[in-house]
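Appendix B.2, paired examples.
Example (i):
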Amino acid sequence: MINFKTIIGLEVHVELKTSSKMFCPCSAEYFGTEPNSHTCPVCLGLPGALPVPNQKAIEWTILLGLALGCQIPEISKFDRKNYFYPDLPKGYQISQYDMPLAINGSLVIKEIATSPSAPRNDKIVRIRRVHLEEDTAKLIHGENATLIDFNRSGVPLVEIVTEPDFTSTEQVKEYLQKLQQIIRYLGISDADMEKGQMRCEPTVNLECEKAGEQEGEMVYTPLVEIKNINSFKFAQKAIDYEIQRQLEEFEKTGQEKQSGNKTTRGWDEVKQKTFLQRTKEEAEDYRYFPEPDIPPFQWTETEIRNSKFEIQKIELPDTKIKRYIKELGLTETNAIILTETKEKAEYFEKCVKLGQSDRLEPLEIANAIINKKVDSETLDPDQIIKLLATKKSAISLTESNLKKMIEQVLADNPKPVADYKGGKTPVLEYLIGQVARLTKGQAGPNLVRNILVEKLKN
């Protein structure tokens, strides 16, 4: 068996949920709409149409870059990426090449432990760049023809490119889930992979031990990019298949990575395999040059500082988890579960705030929500707190005060007590009612009955 190491890099495309497209005023909401109903001369690439950048899309891309720890260069620009394909009406895509909006960031993920006893270690994934471009049209393939829907053409598309830091599909899944979580916390996209709002393109190759005289010499297999994967599960399956395919190919041919040697493959979910699409173009093949109709952007130090201030006002998942542990006394597991979504975290925090007047601890509220002791899916926070407060009061009463209250009822009602001891047992219901009045209905009737019967024996 050949010794090898897996090398994986990721490109993730995310559609921003701005109201209009990247370079024109057409609606960016295309999912489920009538084909070619959200188009204009700009997004159809008609002669003479000029692009006007979407300011909100630029601001959101910078916000995402800052959330990923990126630097924001003072100068950025758009470029033309030239290639001919039916889903690209202009014959080029307005993208960013050498001067993106954000660079040199990182994202920390938890590495999957190899066994229950093994520790989980933090892994730093380096973010090479975060840049902005326009999405392409959608091709609809039929038996005899391919149709094109241009509603998606021109929708703002942010691309997050990592360094090849992944060595397993588990790490890839962790990264994608955390990236999706951050994007949703920022509110810049729903990042729904099934709707195509978030798409993943892994680049995979292997570092293999070369057979021959020099034992231990390592070489690289040719690079393969897997296109447009739209689920976490598919990403894992496609990468796992590609690792095995490349390993078998290297064992047969010994083919090594060459300069410019990169192919694109698709994932066939039915056949559970990748398939060859085309030889991947390099940057020079796209003939990048600055977009002549859009001047470069130059940010001042004040503008960059203001953007950093905006991201500081947003409490992202990792920061929220640390606060829940330190200030609210939650376990790490509980904190991670309650911060899965921004909505769940906000719900929990409302419950904590409301529970202060009833002296409910954040940990007991967290446990109740997580362990389904209360129905957080249908009940409002105030209903949850009333329910938990009532349960807590009943438990507290049972443990410490109920017997004393029952003794008080017996002392205040000597005649019913005498009647009961004289054989008139129905009077017990009257005594139960007196206890219920004193405890305001917070004690369980069966428990009260049992204690009363025991006391009345004496």
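Example (ii):
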Amino acid sequence: MKNKEVTRKRKSRSHFKELVQWLTPGLGVKRWVLLILFGTTFIGVGIALYALDVYRNAPDTWWLPYLSMISLRAFPRSIRIMIFGGIGLIILISGIWGLSQAVLTPFVKPGSVVVDTLTGYRRKERGPKIVVIGGGHGLATLLRGLKEYSYNLTAVVTVADDGGSSGRLRESLGILPPGDIRNCLAALSSDEEMMTQLFQYRFPVGNGDLEGHSFGNLFISAISEIVGSFEDAIAESGRVLAVHGKVMPATLHDVKLVADILPSNSTQEVRVKGESLIPMTKGRIRHIWLEPNNPPAYPSVVKTILNADLVVIGPGSLYTSILPNLLVPDVLEAIRTTQALKIYVCNVATQPGETDGYTCKDHINVILEHCGDKLFDLIVANNHYLSNLAENMEWVFTDLEELQEYLVYQADLLDEEEPWHHSSEKISRVLIDLLQERTGPLIE
């Protein structure tokens, strides 16, 4: 019996706490409660005036004594006001709480509390404006972590991809490559379950022309044909996946990535055209550029960067994901001009065919050689090297003596299951903490 009583009291306190949480500032609920309260009050006043008129003017009948009892006429007027007002308030709050549970519960994940879900949504809705520039697995990992802190996210991705499913669609349909955009949309999805798995599904060997294609790539391509523009297709795909944030191409122009590579057994540079061919060509990449040169940026990208609180460059493939975005002149100029905190996130491991043997300093030098200086305020790098890496990979070591001219923040950023990748939770927490150190608390 005692255990049942304790359980009952705990449930009672839990319900009361949940009711109080609905009054938390910023939820946007109290204004509507007050509006309902005012409306109910006016209705109550109207009914009371009518009842008072009937009571005063009606002839003596058998029900008048009962009406006097119901109206608590034996008590002083102030006591009656408190009693009826209290009962009405309890009924009103109970009705609003029950209505909210009935309406919102079907849209809340099982096991979640409605008010907690609403509180989290409002907090993220007012979160900092963050722009992440990169591509591939690294960008998707970062977005997956940052969406837990803010919904004001924008991913800027390259459109120079010409390999795999994206390359085939680019060649056959003449559209911009959707691969990196698909990965970012999936990472920003509020429900990374069945719909996201479907979006990321890749047709296996033996499916004819569909072999190797991603369903998401085909979906974006189809939407692009229907709505008539690639950028609108991205927006429509985001609605399907219930995305919180935006994904934008750095440019809407059809560009190709070109590199001069110095083979290890030669003194003569080789020119390679195509993003997919660059990592496959053995040698050291000396220089890369876009063709056609100086493509105009997607206008919304420039505006978003200028209005951002935080701009993050990386992580991702140095030559084939990060630099293609920075080689769009308007994007580069917007990064220089913005008042946002600009952070470069260095990769935790080298990438075969691109950055073999590179240190953190090497990564930075490559960016500065292609883009010039004054590009970022802070460098974030991993300092945990105890796990085993995949074949042909090495750690990207950070020598603070080599980086004395930069502000460098080091931490354990590794994903325990795939140590050659960042942990989405660790890196996003570090970035938010660094932003708050500069600007003060942006997230309540």
